[in-house]
Amino acid sequence: MSSVEVRIPTPLRKFTDGQETVAVEGSTVGEVLESLTENHPDLGAKIFSDNGEVRRFVNIFANDEDIRFQDKLDTSVSDGDQVSIVPAIAGGRL
Question: Model pTM?
């Protein structure tokens, strides 16, 4: 298992006791997010849909690379890697 830092966006920090980053164990992005949501259960509903998929308005990055263009939740991570949760921003007029 690798120790991975998960960056928590400001709107979701209320579910991590205000922490900007959380260190968790895992060898894939899926394992990292599973560990994160086991320790912060209310966060799970904000990241995952009822069927266990990452919500479509939530983007997950492993070391600044969108996991949708890698192996999705099976994307490998190594010790010291960083996973970022980035909610999509929508709307507004120009």
Answer: 0.90
Based on the structure, what is the number of domains in the chain?
1
Give the Cα separation of 12 and 8 in Å (integer).
6
The answer to whether residue 92 sits within a structural domain is no
Q: Supply the CATH number for residue 48's domain.
A: 3.10.20.30
* Residue span of the structural domain in which 39 resides: 2-87
Asked if the structure places residue 93 within a domain, the reply is no
Residues 26-83: tens digit of each pLDDT: 999 999 999 999 999 999 999 999 998 999 899 999 999 999 999 999 999 999 999 9
Give residue 91's pLDDT band: very low, low, confident or very high (50, 70, 90): low
d(CA 10, CA 1): 27
The DSSP string of 52-91 is SSBPTTEEEEETTEEGGGTTGGG-B--TT-EEEEEE----
